[in-house]
Amino acid sequence: LVLILDFGSQYTHLITRRVRQLGVLSLCVSGTAPLASLEGLRPRAVVLSGGPHSVHAPGAPSFPKGFLDFVSDAGAHVLGVCYGMQLLVQSLGGAVESGERQEYGKMDIEVTAGCSALYGGEAEVGKRQTVWMSHGDEVVRLPEGFEVVARSVQGAVAAIENREKRFYGLQYHPEVTHSPQGMETLRHFLFDVCGIKADWKMQDVLDEEIKTIQSMVGPDEHVICALSGGVDSTVAATLVHKAIGDRLHCVFVDNGLLRYKERERVMSTFESDLHLPVTCVDASEQFLSKLKGVKDPEQKRKIIGREFIAVFDDFAQKLEQNIGKRPEYLVQGTLYPDVIESCPPPGSGRTHSHTIKSHHNVGGLPKDMKLKLIEPLKLLFKDEVRKLGSILNVPDSFLKRHPFPGPGLAVRVLGDVTEGNALETLRQVDEIFVQAIKDAGLYDIIWQAFAVFLPVQTVGVQGDQRTHSNAVALRAITSEDGMTADWYYFEREFLGDVVNKICNNVRGINRVVQDITSKPPATVEWE
Ligand code: XMP
């Protein structure tokens, strides 16, 4: 196990991911978490992350009291990165000062001690590599027993070590791609310095999770799960089903806001490919009647959240009548970023956003349900969930699906979703657009692509007649995580074909526009 202590750097998650990419389990905890919360963990290595502070700033975060004894007792190696290195130096009696020389961005460093295991143990002195720096302060005096093993070409301390005490430090960020040899350095640290083995495999994660669930859920106990049709809830349910079989009861709610043939498509995968016990509840009337006349997007979200809870509650009650007892557990597809987000380090600027992903992100669960949670994905990142899903034979078509918002097409029909034929029209346009993207082999490159129904009527001419019909917008974006996004540049011919197909096949549409706004300043959805 490698423990990452987070001091607020925007790259901390990246360190966690890089270590995992090297085949070693890593966990990220707040850098200031009390020592008691680390009890029982026997990390082979601890990485102190970077952070936005100066070690001299009032209230600058530091590791908990007794931390250095904890790592020493565990026999763990410590690697400080950027702020983490400066913190280590300061805590051990060295000096860090506000440098005249600030280093931000790409910088060349030179190895000064070729025998350092961080650089493979036999690098030439003077050997250069480009790294990514981001520091205003710099180390000006090393604690006793330390040696400088690399300097920036400007002379700043770039890497240090004290082999005997198992302390190492990098002033730069090895975890970012702008440090092209950064992965190599992390590899040397983990495998050569710490002697860790790359033995963290998805199959082991799966086997362990199954065992945990089997020992947690008693032989007469039942579990419920709401499937949204997305990757997380599907993989979570498939895993729990493997562990406890048909004592898992899933519900898929058709809220009338799904895409073209979505209910049939996902239900057939759930049943035929994954053999999940799923009840499909057609609640479209219930949702749409409550949404009638509602134009305000926040209001729409609230209504959808409330209705969803009502349907879920009803499902749980009926289930109780059928099986003669209350289900005790609820499966949620919480991911590791959600967990990390819930315990940010002080001063990081991140807030305690949520501890558990709320249902479909559109509402909470009924408070009186008192269900215990099973969150089998809570230590995994999205790409790891996809790998796990693939071991569980969840079809690729499912694992690679574009994200779809919990409130569904309600955020893509602007205004009243029940007005005229808006929902059905949007479904047809969306299907033509997304299918064309699939046919052109672009689906996997694009993060998300969809159509938006605009409550705007414009004049057109179709078949020698003037029409006064609705307009739709097409949106396709590339993104890493949906937090920022860029619009996708289609070939002229592709767009021409799609627009022709839409105007010739979908009644009530005579104008198509493309949204070419990035996020920010826009968001992904139009609401
Ligand atoms: P925005 O519009 O906020 O969307 O830029 C960012 C990403 O989140 C998706 N999204 C949602 N996902 N429940 C979800 O599960 C929601 O309520 C929701 N709203 C937006 C959106 O599709 C994009 O991928």
Characteristics of this structure?
527 residues, alpha/beta, Rossmann fold, GMP Synthetase, Chain A, domain 3, 3 domains, nine-stranded mixed beta sheet, five-stranded parallel beta sheet, 14 helices, globular, binds xanthosine-5'-monophosphate
Quick synopsis:
The chain is α/β, with parallel strands linked by helices and 527 residues long. It has helices at residues 12-21, 67-74, 83-91, 182-193, 202-216, 231-244, 262-273, 284-291, 297-323, 336-341, 382-391, 396-399, 422-439, 492-505; strands at 2-6, 26-30, 45-48, 77-81, 95-111, 128-141, 147-152, 157-162, 167-170, 223-227, 248-254, 278-282, 329-331, 372-374, 448-462, 465-478, 486-487, 509-514.
Give a list of the ligands: xanthosine-5'-monophosphate
The CATH H-level superfamily of the largest domain is HUPs
The CATH C-level class name of the largest domain = Alpha Beta
Task: Give the amount of beta strand, in percent.
Answer: 15-25%
Q: Which consecutive residue ranges, at least 5 long each, have pLDDT under 50?
A: 348-363
Assign the CATH architecture of the largest domain.
3-Layer(aba) Sandwich
Helix content: 25-40%
Major beta sheet, strand line-up: 2-1-3-4-9-8-7-5-6
Shape call: globular
Rg for CA atoms: 27 Å
CATH topology of the largest domain: Rossmann fold
| Beta strands, count | 18
State the end-to-end distance: 43 Å
